[in-house]
Amino acid sequence: MAKVLGRLITAMATPFAPDGSVDYGRAAQLAEALVASGSEGLVVTGTTGESPTLSHDEKLRLYQVAIDAVGDRAAIIAGSCGYNTAESIELSREAARLGVDAILGTVPYYNKPPQQGIEAHFRAIADAVYAPIILYNVPARTATNMLPETTIRLSEVPNIVGIKEASGNLEAISAIIRNSREGFRVWSGADPDNLPILALGGYGAISVASHLVGAQIARMMDCVVSGLPAEASAIHNRLAAFVAALFVTTSPIPLKYALRRVGFDCGGLRLPLVEIDPRSAEVMDATLANLRVDLPVSLAA
C-alpha cells in the first residue's frame, strides 16, 4: 500500500560541510528534526535543497539517508525531475528502487516547452516510473507556467497524484481543484498562499517555512479542516513576516541563515548561490526575534 503523503511536507534544505561536500550526517539530523516538528513528508533535492548543484550520486545518497533517518514516520519525495525527460526518468527510476514514496516533477525549465511538451514529458515519466508523482508548477523559477487545463488532463494519469502549485494564480488553482479527477490533491507551493489554497479546497502545503515553524503550520491546517477559520487566519497572519523574510533574497539563502541563527547550522551554499547580504540578514534577524521556533534544535547536537 502506498504511504500517505500527508498535508504538511517540507521542502528540505541540503546541509553542506565546510569543504562544500554534502553533510549526510546533518541531513539525517535535519530530516529527523523536521518530522519531530510536524512534517509528514520531506521533499529531498528539490529547489530548496539546491538540486541544480547536486550530482546524480549525491541525490541518490540523500534519498537513502532520508529514508533511513525517518523510516515509516514520514514520506520521502524525490526531487528527481528536470528539463531532460530521459535523465528525469533514469534518476526517478533509481530513486524508486531505493524506496522513495513519491517523485516531485518540476515543470521543465530553461528549454521552455509548450503545453503539449509539458504534458508529454510528464506522461513519459509516469509511464516509465513505478511511483506516485506530484507535479510542480513554479513559473517564477522555470519561466514556463503549466496551464490548469494541462494539469487537469494530467490528473487523469493514475500515478500522477497531485500538484505542488506555486503559480500564485488562485483562479487557476481553484479550477484545478474543481475539475481534476477525484482524489487528485493540490498542495500549496508558496507559503504566503498556504491558507488561501486550503480555503479553496487544497489539501496541504509543501513548505519552506516549516523548517522552523512546522508545528504551527500543521496546527493552522488542522484548524481549516476542523472548521476554525479565525484561529487558522490568526496563525497564518502571525507567521506572515517570517514567511516574507524567507524570500527577501533568493531562497534558500535566508533559510540557511535562519537555521544557523536558531542553532541548527546546515552549512553554506554552493555557487552560484552565496551567503546572505547584510540588509537581508537584518530583515531575518528582526523576524526571528519574535518567532516561536518549533524545530527541536537539540537534534542538531
Oligomer category: single chain
- β-strand percent reads 5-15%
The CATH superfamily name is Aldolase class I
Number of discrete domains? 1
Our Rg estimate from Cα atoms comes to 18 Å
Supply the number of helical segments.
13
Spatially, the strands of the biggest sheet line up as 1-2-3-4-5-6-7-8
Mean pLDDT rating: 96
- Distance between termini? 35 Å
Given this structure, which CATH class is correct?
Alpha Beta
The secondary-structure class comes to alpha/beta
Q: Considering DSSP H and I runs of 4 or more, what fraction of the residues is helical?
A: 40-55%
Q: How many strands?
A: 8
Secondary-structure element string:
EHEHEHEHEHHEHEHEHHHHH
| CATH architecture descriptor text | Alpha-Beta Barrel
Q: Write the CATH fold name.
A: TIM Barrel
Q: What's the story with the biggest beta sheet?
A: 8 strands, parallel, barrel
Shape: globular
Low-confidence stretches: none
Overview of the molecule:
With 301 residues, the chain is an alpha/beta fold. The chain has one domain (8-229): Aldolase class I (TIM Barrel, Alpha-Beta Barrel), CATH 3.20.20. It has 13 helices and eight strands. Strands 1-2-3-4-5-6-7-8 form an eight-stranded parallel β-barrel, surrounded by five helices. Helix 3 (85-98) links the parallel strand 3 (75-78) and strand 4 (102-106). Helix 1 (24-36) packs across helix 2 (56-70), helix 3 runs parallel beside helix 4 (115-128) and helix 12 crosses helix 13 (278-288). The radius of gyration is 18 Å and the shape is globular.
